[in-house]
Design goal:
- The chain has three helices and three strands; from the N terminus they run βββααα.
- It is α+β, with helices and mostly antiparallel strands.
- It has two domains: 39 residues, no CATH class; 34 residues.
- Helix 2 runs antiparallel to helix 3.
- It is elongated, with a radius of gyration of 26 Å.
């Protein structure tokens, strides 16, 4: 990110990844410094995935059958069914 102050003009031009972004501001240097600080702050670490508890195949298949019944009866949409089925299969 670069800052090109315009003398006597409250316009800011940032060049971000090769693209120009123009802003209007009465205090360009202050705005730039705040944006630079925000941009350069360290990103929070991504959340670690919670390990999936394995279950007995019999229990998972019983749950899959119940899930299929809910889907067949129109209680679950295709998307809901697919999402829950995937979660159950990961437990095997």
């Amino acid at each position: 990110m670069e800052y090109f102050p315009q003398k006597y003009n409250p316009e800011l031009r940032f060049v971000i990844n090769g693209k120009n972004v123009d802003f209007q501001s009465s205090n360009g240097a202050n705005f730039y410094n705040k944006m630079k600080d925000f941009y350069n702050t360290t990103k929070p670490e991504s959340k670690q995935e919670i390990p999936i508890e394995k279950e007995s195949p019999d229990k998972v298949f019983d749950q899959l059958e119940k899930l299929g019944n809910l889907h067949e009866n129109g209680i679950l949409t295709n998307e809901e069914f697919t999402e829950q089925k995937k979660k159950l299969l990961e437990k095997l």
